[in-house]
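Bug: token stream looks shifted between consecutive jobs. Job 1:
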Amino acid sequence: MTTIASGTDTLTRDALTVLQPGFTGTTAPDWVLRRLGEGLASVGLFGRNIASDEQLAALTAQLRAEREDVLVAIDEEGGDVTRLEVRAGSSFPGNLALGAVDDEVLTRQVAAELGRRLAACGVNLNWAPSADVNSNPGNPVIGVRSFGADTGLVARHTAAYVTGLQSAGVAACTKHFPGHGDTAVDSHHALPRIDVDADVLAERDLAPFRAAIAAGSRAVMSAHILVPALDPDRPATLSRRILTGLLRGELGYDGLIVTDGMEMRAIAGTYGIERGSVLAVAAGADAICVGGGLADEETVRRLRDALVEAVRTGELPEERLADAAERVRTLARWTAARADAARSVPADGEVGLRAARRALRVTGAEGFTPLTEPPYVAALTPVANIAVGDETPWGVAAELRRLLPGTETGSFAGPDAGDEVLAAAGPRRVVAVVRDEHRHPWMAAALDTLLAARPDTVVVEMGVPGAEPRGALHVATHGAARVCGLAAAEVVAGA
């Protein structure tokens, strides 16, 4: 039976219902279980909460023993952003790889298999897909998380992803509305601003969200970005013009609106999480995502009390909070009614690797002889953005070591990286692995040094392939998932 909170007034219950907090540990702490009994309806899971599929299934069962219809959310995009396989690398390529293949059936199959696996672990809400059009090549936070820079392609694949994921009974949460693709600032660190006309936004950035809504996306996540053409004063997450006027009114969206993480500096550093949460719900958001960085009971208490106090002072209409809470419960009912949907999705554990192989773009293969001796793999490693994190391994060294035992590897960064690679590699053939060479001048300079001294160097680009292909062989994987590294290693070693 679903737990009904007792001894808690309706207002306080509703304030808890709209929160999507995180916690630490691989089992649910007592405070989470207690709050579920008081009205909390959602939790968010991160890599720190997951050790294995079996452990995750036990954790979600523990949560459901307390509240049967709890929404268990996760940020599992596949590709570079993985929580299920945070310590091994994802079995699924990310969006850019799927966009490079441009096969909507394949995208739907990948999303369905990911959804099937999530559902088997008891997860029923995925903060994915990213529907951002990566129109700014220098974007530091979206990049390979986008299906690409072409609006039509992004729209088609967003719809296919939503359809595939939800076929397994897992609600999609399409993000980051109204589009985070044309930013040069990471909203984890500061508030980005997009200065383009409303017509450009409508034609370029909003089209994928229209496609997601038409495909039935059960949730949409707002972006912490300032878009003056839509609202010159407040970022999208806090903007009634954007969430209620545009998303609800003009686009006709009737599902759950979820905020991006409220502890991100774009909000926490400007409004604070309490004030930001009140403004977000007043603007039209229904669920407050918090817990990536702040994952404790005190955060939940602070946000609950801020919402209750805002209603009592008249700043937040009680009916708006009640409406938000009811939208959360509506999504919970949707997922509960589809709890068995994953059983109708045929398991396809190899679909991710098939997609990764098809996503490769290989330049120079006609004159290339696959390696037969173990090489030196030099990872030219940029600082990871917060969405990706630095826990997840990437590259081709592990797979090449399996194919060519004795392969050695090292990680390099900075202005002397090229010379350091040459010294470390010695006589071995060099395989240089890069991520977004076009965004990092030091990385491009390191490749200049390597190729001048060792023109037989193989280059594997695992980010956005924005630079011209170069090297004896150039392999663009369109992402750094584990399966992307495996597919690239197979080409390099002729496997």
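Job 2, same session, no restart:
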Amino acid sequence: MTETVYDLRSALARLAAMDGELVSTDTEVDPHAELSGVYRYVGAAGTTRRPTREGPAMLFNRVKGFADFRVVTGVLASRRRVGALLGCEPDRLGHLLMNSVKNPLPPVLTQSAHIPCQEVVHLASEPGFDIRTLLPAPTNTEEDAGPYFTMGLCYATDPETGESDITIHRLCMQGPDELSMYFAPGRHLDVFRAKAEAAGNALPITISLGVDPAIYVGACFEPPTTPLGFDELNIAGALRGKAVELAQGIAVNARAIAHAEVVIEGELMPEVRYREDRNTNTGKAMPEFPGYTGPANPSLPVIKVKAVTHRRHPILQHTIGCSEEHVNMAGIPTEASILGMVERAMPGRLLNVFAHSSGGGKLMAVMQFKKSIPADEGRQRQAALLAFAAFPELKHVMLVDEDVDIFDSNDVLWAMQTRYQGDVDTVFIPGVRCHPLDPSQIPEYSPSIAAKGIACKTIFDCTVPYALKSHFQRCEFKEVDVRRFLPDFHY
């Protein structure tokens, strides 16, 4: 693979050169429910309702109502693909990102006279401007609150400190020049918005769609690994060994990703709120990472769109919220955060982490811990406690020994069946803040839950007690070269 990846198009070129990692269709697709309905079968995987599977990314070359646009989905919906796009073995991606956090490379304002994301400009002040007819934002299901941008990288600056941050938020089309924006509790851009609103000001913001996959993965870190004031574009720069290039907005005082396919420029308006489903009255929002369509929010901040810019013959990037794509974008940074925190506390003990697909990359982590001496007994549970501190939205931790393949769910469940006794190997931590999109985290579910988004965090210790290690040796087989018998066999 010789193609250098620096934007979406070069990423797609790399995937096209690989066997079975990108498919395309020239059959016209309706962005309303049909596009996501197709990809559910082709390669969504994750927590998506069955039948689904892990499969290739998919490029739709003809989108109903949008002659000049293509739509791609599932670019990061395979850990193997993420590894290929970042130049790393899939099982080492958490370590790669951990090292990138340690070696940040800040973004720079482009000095190029040609800015790809501004090849075509549409100003909201122009007659007939309507973002709903300009951009083919898909509707994931027929009961969604409306068309959503699901891969929009929102970039804004703290009005008091001048520090910038980038995160992905769900953005619902509300009118010709309006988007509602959902903030999960604690998001940094919401802090910036609140500061601007308190001063009676709008917050300038850009939304970049269709960028280098390194930017998407790097942008999904959360505190405490990337505290308030840390620009996650630093991580993408470190991943590539080259600073991310930014472009100054045309209509607002904010910057965007220079090589993005599409940029929406706007302002988060003070004291303006919309009901998320005000145009459809479905009562639903859109599919989210736990595999459910949550209720529409009764009141969300609103972005007033000032301009839309894009490349010639643009490609809009989309994801299904409950797909393996969310698992990788959210989960690999989670792994890096846990690895980094535990390594600082007990070097060499935690070998690897997998933010499991069943939790959408957020709710469950499998931790591979090595006990080398008798005094290591119990430290595996300390490591689990550190994991909860490294990623506060984590709900469950499964601890396994070094001989268990954490990326093989059968092997993990085997460890639970043979190395776990519920009465002595389960640790409950009730009443802790977790994630409001998990529908079980509500007072109606359990009397122990005081408010929405609070959970009982649980450690499942499926490691062998150090003193009993000799009783839990896996059977050994003779090492052979299978290719003597099957020349094309791959281990």
